[in-house]
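Annotators were shown the component list below and the corresponding predicted structure, then asked to write short factual statements about the assembly.
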Amino acid sequence: MRSALSEHVEKEQFPQYPAPVAIQPAGTGHAPHHPYLQHHFDNMAQQMEASTLGMWTFLVTEIMFFGGLFMAYLVYRHQSPQGFQEASHHLDVFWGTLNTALLIISSLTMALAVRAAQTSQKPKTQVMWLVSTMILGAGFLGIKAIEYTEKFRDHIVPGPYFHWEGLYPKPAEQFYSLYFAMTGLHALHMVIGLGIMTVITVMAWKKQFDGEYYTPVEVAGLYWHFVDIVWIFLFPLLYLIGRHYHAG
Amino acid sequence: MFTNFPFFPQQASEQAAQIDALYFFLLAVTGFFAVLVAVLVVVFAIKFRRKHDQEVGYPIHGSLALELLWTFIPLGITMVMFVWGAQVFFHMTRAPKNAMDIYIVGKQWMWKAQHMDGAREINELHVPIGRPVRLIMGSEDVIHSFFIPDFRVKADVVPGRYNHMWFTATQPGRFHIFCTQYCGTKHSAMIGWVTAMTPADYQTWLSGGSTGGSMSEAGAKLFTDLACVTCHMDNAQGRGPVLKGLYGKQVLVNNNQTVTFDDAYIRESILTPQAKVVAGFQPIMPTFQGLVTEEQLLQLIAYVKSLSDGSAQGVTAPATQAPSGQAGTPPEIKK
Amino acid sequence: METIAPPTLNYLNNGHSLSSWLLTRDHKRIALLYLASITAFFFLGGFFALMIRLELLTPAADLVEPDTYNKLFTMHGVVMVFFFLIPSIPAVLGNFLIPIMIGAKDLAFPRINLLSWYIYVLGGLFTVVAAISGGVDTGWTFYAPYSTSASNSHVILAGVGIFITGFSSILTGLNFIVTVHRMRAPGLTWFRLPLFVWAHYATSLIMILGTPVIAITVLLVAVERGLHLGIFDPALGGDPILFQHLFWFYSHPAVYIMILPAMGVISELIQCFARKNIFGYAFVAFSSLAIAIIGFLVWGHHLFVSGQSTYAGLVFSIISMFVAIPSAVKVFNWTATLYKGSVSWDSPMLYAFGFIGLFTIGGLTGLFLATLGMDIHMHDTYFIIAHFHYVMVGGAIFGYLGGMHYWWPKITGRMYPEGWAKFACLNIFVGFNLTFFPQFVVGYLGMPRRYAMYAPEFQVYNVLSTAGATILGIGYLIPMVYFAWSLKNAPLAGPNPWGARGLEWEIPSPPPTENFATTPIVTHGTHQYAPSHEVGIV
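Structure shown to annotators:
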């Protein structure tokens, strides 16, 4: 019995790639192809799509990774809402806002870097945007270093030397445990991001990217935007609990 | 070694028969489908065994009717399992109102039981038959689990909270208690015995055993020794709320939540007093974390409970204390 | 069976140096690297199991100290779950076959594939070091606060090993997903994919979504243990039930990582050895996805007696009932495939038969545990141990062994001795049932798990179980011997010793490094045997 399903299957379109390059049996020479085409791919388009899908899939795993920490945050904030609010007010909104601005601008420069590669602009232009992104990222990390140092100075690093003056010491210690865990993990991802960006910048400097091949820039861009978005969630959850704007 | 070859635990509680009935149903369903599948596989493997090397099978792609049949029949059977299991579960997790409370504290690697009248046991639990018994259980260190196989009851014993379970023993005898949540080196030695006795024998045992007062008497003594009474007075003049008559009621706390004044809330207020302060009162109660053991907590809770059920032992404040500053207003009670 | 000589150049002899193996990008060689390591871990975990069963011959803790016993069952669980069962079929058979089954030259990311093996080995090393330097005694479930505050063993070291190995799993899953989406040969639509590939696709979804959560959980345990921050220990302000939720959010889907690939193998075996395409292809394909998705929603059934709310219990119980249905659908479809098939009794098929019976029992006993009122009595007893060994050994390992036998001729070019294979299969089947069936009984009687000493009335069942374990252990050794023997001494297998229909059977055994001389163009699904179908491979 042929089901309706199999009829549908006959009409399904499979991916419309250009005709695959015939594979030469081993040892019989090499058909010409783009220098950066890896041999298990049929053409550059397939390689590009595979690489970007790979990065998107990886970012999904990163969401789940940070998700565990967000869950712990949810549980403990629900348990002690006032404690968390009191603890959050001790964070400096100025640094947090500045950091947010730096990261958002760095995402802009990153997007411009990808565009520069994609539209075959001069390598110098590509490098300029990439280096701008890195400078902004490094600025973010510098401010985080300032903030962390302040925490040490104020004895609000969780552990044996934690000392809280306010009404809710236990929730405050929980809040700061989560603060360091979440921003620390985020900062680690930023550092890795800077490493990736360095490699990409060197490749751009060596004139490797143009409209036909800019996959590494695209993929690095996806990663960078993701790290930015994680911060967009961290900032209000950590810095803005119960804050109200006071005019004047 | 082969003197007993038991196949089945005893049915020594009122719940056991219910659980076993459910078990037999599940066993029957499992047996039926396991045998069905096994027989079909064997029969098809024999009947359609390849006869010559080039033989192939008959091209059958599927049948929507069959797929729906063997999707919805299992679904129906599992829904019966779910509903029956849920019913039994509801029965097992809701202790009757007249249940007799016994407090259990698990600690590495022993069980401590405290009866309300003060009798204490270690690794033993004496209970009367024919009367519902509710166990209120806490842990001093890691997660344990209190399991009486012959009663078919079990609950984890978790630090930082109280878990309950209840049973009604139906026959006299001695029955195993096992710890069933891995808790370290002597986990397999954290065992004991429940002794179920006729009501008469139980009374005899009770009167012969306990030294010292009941749990709530012990709690009353602690209430004075730890100076709780200086703020929680009988009248509205203390710095802390009056505790009389509050147990089981809804109470408004200072961030506009309402909480139930129960064992868990009392425990939390003793250990982390700032967490939920009664509306209208200042967050000035000090913490007693590290100053009271789990058993003392249970005694204090028993005392506070007793203030609400008419069998109160009154405790008077030391004569010299009169609070300066604001008098507390009675907490708002939501009925 | 023809004895065609293998091509002079194939993936096995294409380079003999150590670096050509250790730096390979060939998915087939990476599969063999994995095969060597997971086999080593299997026997390590098996050794721990043997010690456990020997101790349990007598009620007293007289063979080893209770402390040692606690480390034995912990290491048995950690090694078997994280270093054998989770990688086994995907990393060996999946890596080897998926590119070939879809007509590709390799996976999407060959270097990431190699990296995932190194990560796996590194994580394994941490765990072995933890074992050698004194072991871990928390149970493989390392519940807090025991693991964070009370245990005196190498929790952090073992935790780091698990954390690292998790990334191996994530990268494998990522590779498979991108490969199946982007590397299929022309004409290979989703509904022409072999069911083995569907099963691995669903498994990969679980790998990438679930594994990061266990990584974070292990990290938090290490943080609490190392820095004494209150996350799970109530004495420090934490919540122990939060640990259980985070742990089981991964570890429940993890069991589907272990079984789905085996189900994919069984689908292939049944079709080949009944010479008949599967009954209900779409239903079997979608049931893999359904198991993967619903499997993420049932973790709370491990917390029924923890003190979680009654209402949470209701929700998790009913969804756990739902997750059983797609598995039942598969079992019925496999059975129906045998009807009017041409059934051969070759050893891979015997493993498939064993799987169907044992997985049915294992899966149905899972329903006991999903039933709220029933689980209270059975939780943390030997009933649970029997249940999960039926699905993980009777299910996953039978699938693994069946697949290894089926594809051995393709992987090595040699055919193993069939008589010995049948004997080993029977041996394993008998030994397995004798080991684990008594555990259902002694579990209902009330014997708790993780007990070094037990009440004397439980002894007779433990003796039966240990006898079974001995037979089972011997059964596992027999294939090691004849597989090794076959590499040099067995007859050559040729491209298609089974007369199967699928892309992997159209290429030589062993395959050449690039798999296909020219990219195939696919016009049919696999396992089309009836004379009215043409073989559609150009």
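Statements collected:
1. The CA atoms of residues 428 and 475 of chain C lie 5 Å apart.
2. The first helix of chain C runs from residue 18 to 22.
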